[in-house]
Write a structure and sequence with these properties.
Blueprint lengths: L15 H5 L10 E5 L2 H10 L3 E6 L6 E8 L2 E7 L4 H15 L3 E10 L2 H4 L3 E10 L12 E3 L3 H11 L3 E9 L7 H9 L2 E5 L2 H11 L2 E12 L4 E2 L3 H6 L1 H10 L4
Parallel strand pairs: 1-4, 1-5, 5-10, 6-8, 8-9
Antiparallel strand pairs: 2-3, 3-4, 5-9, 6-7, 6-10, 10-11
Helix pairs in contact: 3-7
């Protein structure tokens, strides 16, 4: 069973050094943004002087990793694959190649409570482990704690950014977010649903990486209907990018 997959007694057969060679002796960057919007990634490439410093290798193509300068600080970024398994392993691959230990992740999410999330960013405090990757990096449990939620909330307070703290549900099976499962997660206090967070937090905890995550609600999964109108804006809103760049000064 998947709950038996956490093995802390033996080493991984595949090591990143076998794929990418040794990690750099001196970090190339300290902080990195995880981006899920192709439009936001293109904006950075078109409006900042970006330098490629690595790549996420895959048989279906490589995903470049870049850095740029803002406010006197060099910041990394890459366009991440979606889904918990690939997104979380990609984060570790980027950390290995660049030395980055602080990652800011921002993307869209589905809202399980449209009234609570309207006009606010979601800062998840816990995430329900409805995916597979986290069970290989953390002991089995229903939820995983998002460690830097309160720290991120404090920064949002300082910057006067509207947000709501709450539980999240990470679900890789986007077409099987059933009415029953939505109701169950809602009854436990979940206000949002995404595809990556629980796996990402698990791999970051395992490898000593600091993760800061905030989400923008787009589509709404209510008890009676599905509202998709806000999804495109939540996916590609440049405001999240500028917030993430500002956050780099505070983490």
């Amino acid at each position: 069973m998947i709950t038996d997959c956490y093995d802390e007694k033996t080493d991984s057969v595949i090591q990143l050094g076998d794929v990418y060679g040794p990690a750099p002796e001196k970090p190339l960057i300290d902080k990195c943004m995880i981006i899920y919007s192709d439009e936001i990634s293109k904006y950075l490439l078109e409006n900042y002087k970006c330098e490629q410093i690595g790549f996420i290798g895959a048989c279906n193509g490589n995903f470049p990793v870049y850095k740029f300068s803002s406010n006197g600080e060099e910041i990394g970024f890459y366009l991440s694959p979606t889904g918990s398994a690939v997104a979380s392993s990609s984060c570790y691959e980027v950390s290995w190649q660049t030395g980055a230990k602080k990652f800011v992740m921002f993307g869209s999410c589905g809202s399980l409570d449209g009234e609570k999330t309207k006009g606010k960013f979601v800062v998840p405090t816990e995430s329900y482990r409805g995916e597979g990757a986290s069970y290989y990096y953390a002991p089995p449990a229903d939820y995983i704690t998002i460690k830097n939620a309160q720290k991120l909330a404090s920064i949002f307070d300082k910057l006067k950014i509207p947000y709501i703290l709450g539980k999240n549900w990470s679900c890789d099976a986007i077409l099987r977010e059933t009415k029953g499962l939505c109701a169950a997660r809602r009854s436990e206090g979940c206000i949002s649903v995404d595809m990556e967070l629980s796996g990402m937090q698990a791999i970051c905890d395992y490898h000593g990486i600091e993760l800061y995550d905030f989400l923008e609600a787009g589509d709404v999964l209510s008890e009676t209907s599905y509202e998709i109108e806000g999804l495109h804006g939540a996916n590609h809103n440049l405001g999240k990018l500028f917030i993430a760049i500002e956050l780099m000064k505070h983490i």
